[in-house]
Specification:
Rossmann fold; five-stranded parallel beta sheet; seven-stranded mixed beta sheet; alpha/beta; single chain; about 40% helix
Length: about 600
C-alpha cells in the first residue's frame, strides 16, 4: 500500500465503521456512533504514523496509543482486527462474558496500557507516559484520542498545563470534536477555535482540521511529529455516526447499538477485509535507566521521637540510591511530606506536579506503564480529590505507591480541611490495594522499601507529629502482618491500633495494668491485607476487642477487623473520629475525638 493512498485510507475507515456497527450489534449495546466519528482519524494514524510491534507489546520503542474516550472501544477493537491481531469471531464477542474485549478497554488486552472509560483520564496518563519517554531518552510518541465532551473535565486542563509547561513534544492529543455528548450538544459544539484558544494558552501547538479528510489528518499528524518543545493537539471536526443517515449527527443515538445494523453496513459499502500493516519501530535502543546500589535504610534509636513522614522521606532517598527505577512525585508539599529529601538527592527522578493531585496520580500511572516504580505523595486529605484516578488504577492493575501525610486529627491546629479522615476507607475499597499505616520511624522505613515490589495500588499513611521509636532498626514488617506489643495469659481484652493510636494504646494498657486489668495490644500496621490469623487468635482468647483509629469509624481499621472476625463472634468496640473537629493541639484533638489513652482505658472498663 502506498503510504498516502487516500482511497485505501477511505476504505480502511469504512471497514472500521462497519466493524464498529457489527460489534455493537452482536453485543446489543456499546458506542458505535462515537467510534464512527473517529474512524478516519485512527485509520490514518495506524496506516501512516503509528510505530508499534504487535508481536512485542513490551518493545520499549513502541509508540503508545491511549483511548481517553474509552467508550469508543468498538473502534479500537476494529483497529486490532485490521492489524490482524484480533479475528472476526473475537471481535463479535465484544462485551460478552469472558471476552477480553470489554465494554471499555482494559489491560486484559495486551496492547492496552491502561484502563479507560472514566472520562478525562487518558490525557493525564498520557502525560505520564510522555514524561517517562523523556526520562528514558527514547523517541517513542504518545497518541491520545480524546472526545470533546471530556474536555469539560478539570483533569484535562491539569494535563494541558503540565504538558505545556514541560514542553512534552512527544505527546499528541487528537480530539474528536463530533459536537454531541451523551444527552445533547457539547458546551462548544463544533467551535474548534474555542478549544484551540484554551490549549494554546497552555503552550500547545494547535491544529484545526476536517476530521473526515485523510489528507488533512495526515498533514496534522506529520506536523505533530515534527514539532519541537511543545505538545500538539489536533482538533478534528467530525460527525457522530458518520456514514449512516439514521444516526449521523443526530441526538439520541449515543451509547446504543444501531436499530438496523444490516442496513447501516450496506449503507457503508458492506463488510471488507482491509488489512493495515502498522510499522514496527526502528532500532533497538534500550531505555535509559539509572544505576542500582545497595540498600541502607536510615536507623532510628529506640526512645527518640521522629515523625513517620520524616522517616518516609529519608527511607525513600535511601531506596533511590539502591534502585534506579524508583521515581518520586509530589503535589507541591514536598517540604511537608518530606519527599524533598529524595528530590534533593535525585532531581532528575523527582517530579513536581504542583497542586494538581489528579495529574500527579495519573502521571504515576503513566510512569509505571514504562516500568518505573513511582511514589506519589501529598496530604492524605488531598488524595481524596484524585479518588477516581486511584479507582481506575485498580482497574488497570497499575502498580503505584501513594503516600498520604498529615493524617487524622493528630495534625492539630490546622483544622478539619487538612485532616485525612477518609483515606483508609477510600484506599481499602480499591481493587487489589494494599494499605499500610506505620507507627514509628523504623517501621516506616521498612515499609517504604517493602512497597517497591508490591503489585497494585499501595498506600502508606504517615503522621505529621513526632512519635516515639518503639522498634529496633532493621526489623522486617511484611505486608499482611502485625506486631503483638502486649500479651499475657490473663488478658481480658485486646486493643487493636495503628499509627498514632498505637502509642495511645500502649499508654492505656499501662494505665489499665496499674488498675489490675491486663490487656493485650496489637499493632495492625497492615490495614489491608489485615493479619487475620492474629485477629482470630485475639478474638478466641480474650473475646473482647477494642479498635482505635485516627480516622472515621466508617471503612477504616475497625471495619477491617470486623471483616476478619465477625464470624468468630467476639465483642468488638470501635473507637474512631465521629464528630467534626475544630482547631486544637494534637493532644486535645485526640482527647476530643475520644481516641486518646484515657478514652481507650475507659472503653475497656465499660466493655468489661
Amino acid at each position: 500500500m502506498p503510504e498516502r493512498d487516500l482511497q485505501y485510507l477511505a476504505e480502511l475507515a469504512a471497514q472500521l465503521r462497519v466493524d464498529s456497527v457489527r460489534a455493537a450489534a452482536a453485543a446489543g449495546s456499546g458506542h458505535p456512533t462515537s467510534s464512527m466519528s473517529a474512524a478516519d482519524l485512527m485509520a490514518v494514524l495506524f496506516a501512516c504514523h503509528l510505530r508499534y510491534d504487535f508481536t512485542d507489546p513490551r518493545n520499549p520503542a513502541n509508540d503508545h496509543l491511549i483511548f481517553s474516550k474509552g467508550h469508543a472501544s468498538p473502534l479500537l477493537y476494529s483497529l486490532y482486527k485490521a492489524a490482524g491481531v484480533v479475528d472476526d469471531e473475537e471481535l463479535l464477542s465484544f462485551r460478552k462474558r469472558g471476552s477480553r474485549l470489554e465494554g471499555h478497554p482494559t489491560p486484559r488486552v495486551p496492547w492496552v496500557d491502561v484502563a479507560t472509560g472514566s472520562l478525562g483520564q487518558g490525557l493525564p496518563i498520557g502525560v505520564g507516559v510522555a514524561m517517562a519517554g523523556r526520562l528514558e531518552r527514547l523517541p517513542y510518541r504518545v497518541w491520545v484520542l480524546c472526545g470533546d465532551s471530556e474536555l469539560a473535565e478539570g483533569s484535562i486542563w491539569e494535563a494541558a498545563e503540565h504538558a505545556g509547561d514541560e514542553g512534552l513534544a512527544n505527546l499528541t492529543a487528537i480530539v474528536d470534536v463530533n459536537r454531541l455528548g451523551q444527552r445533547g450538544p457539547t458546551r462548544h459544539g463544533w467551535d474548534t477555535g474555542a478549544y484551540a484558544r484554551r490549549f494554546g494558552a497552555f503552550g500547545w501547538h494547535t491544529i484545526e482540521i476536517d476530521g473526515h479528510d485523510p489528507g488533512q489528518i495526515d498533514f496534522a499528524l506529520s506536523d505533530a511529529c515534527n514539532m519541537r518543545r511543545r505538545p500538539t493537539v489536533i482538533l478534528a471536526k467530525t460527525r457522530k455516526g458518520e456514514g449512516v443517515l439514521e444516526v449521523e449527527n443526530r441526538e439520541g443515538a449515543h451509547g446504543k447499538a444501531l436499530k438496523d445494523p444490516d442496513k447501516a453496513v450496506e449503507e457503508l459499502g458492506g463488510p471488507r477485509n482491509v488489512r493495515v500493516d502498522v510499522r514496527r519501530p526502528e532500532g533497538g535502543a534500550a531505555p535509559h535507566r539509572f544505576p542500582d546500589g545497595s540498600l541502607e535504610l536510615p536507623r532510628y534509636v529506640v526512645g527518640e521521637s521522629v515523625a513517620t513522614r520524616t522517616a518516609y522521606g529519608e527511607a525513600l532517598a535511601a531506596l533511590g540510591r539502591a534502585r534506579g527505577d524508583v521515581v518520586a512525585l509530589d503535589g507541591e508539599v514536598a517540604d511537608s511530606t518530606k519527599t524533598e529529601t529524595f528530590g534533593e538527592a535525585f532531581p532528575e527522578r523527582f517530579f513536581e506536579m504542583y497542586i494538581a493531585e489528579q495529574q500527579m496520580v495519573a502521571a504515576a500511572i503513566g510512569l509505571q506503564v514504562r516500568g518505573w516504580k513511582p511514589y506519589a505523595a501529598t496530604f492524605a486529605a488531598f488524595l481524596t480529590r484524585a479518588h477516581d484516578f486511584i479507582r481506575m488504577a485498580g482497574v488497570s492493575r497499575a502498580s503505584i505507591r501513594l503516600v498520604g501525610s498529615h493524617a487524622g486529627v493528630a495534625i492539630g491546629e490546622d483544622g478539619p480541611s487538612q485532616m485525612g479522615l477518609e483515606d483508609l476507607a477510600m484506599l481499602r475499597a480499591v481493587h487489589g490495594s494494599t494499605v499500610l499505616y506505620p507507627c514509628d520511624a523504623n517501621q516506616t522505613a521498612a515499609l517504604t522499601a517493602e512497597m517497591a515490589d508490591v503489585e497494585g495500588v499501595s498506600y502508606l499513611r504517615t503522621t505529621r507529629g513526632s512519635t516515639p521509636v518503639i522498634y529496633e532498626p532493621g526489623q522486617h514488617f511484611p505486608v499482611g502482618g502485625s506486631r503483638v506489643l502486649r500479651q499475657s495469659a490473663g488478658d481480658r481484652a485486646t486493643i487493636l491500633a495503628a499509627g498514632v493510636t498505637v502509642h495511645e494504646a500502649l499508654a492505656a494498657a499501662d494505665e489499665l495494668a496499674a488498675a489490675g486489668i491486663p490487656v493485650g495490644v496489637i499493632d495492625l500496621y497492615s490495614v489491608k491485607p489485615v493479619d487475620a490469623a492474629a485477629l482470630a487468635e485475639a478474638a478466641t482468647t480474650t473475646g473482647n476487642l477494642i479498635t482505635v483509629e485516627d480516622h472515621r469509624l466508617e471503612g477504616g481499621l475497625g471495619d477491617a477487623v470486623m471483616d476478619a472476625v465477625s464470624e468468630l463472634g467476639p465483642r468488638v468496640i470501635k473507637l474512631g473520629v465521629t464528630g467534626l473537629p475544630g482547631s486544637a493541639t494534637p493532644e486535645e484533638q485526640l482527647a476530643d475525638a475520644r481516641i486518646d489513652r484515657h478514652a481507650i482505658a475507659a472503653a475497656v472498663k465499660r466493655l468489661l
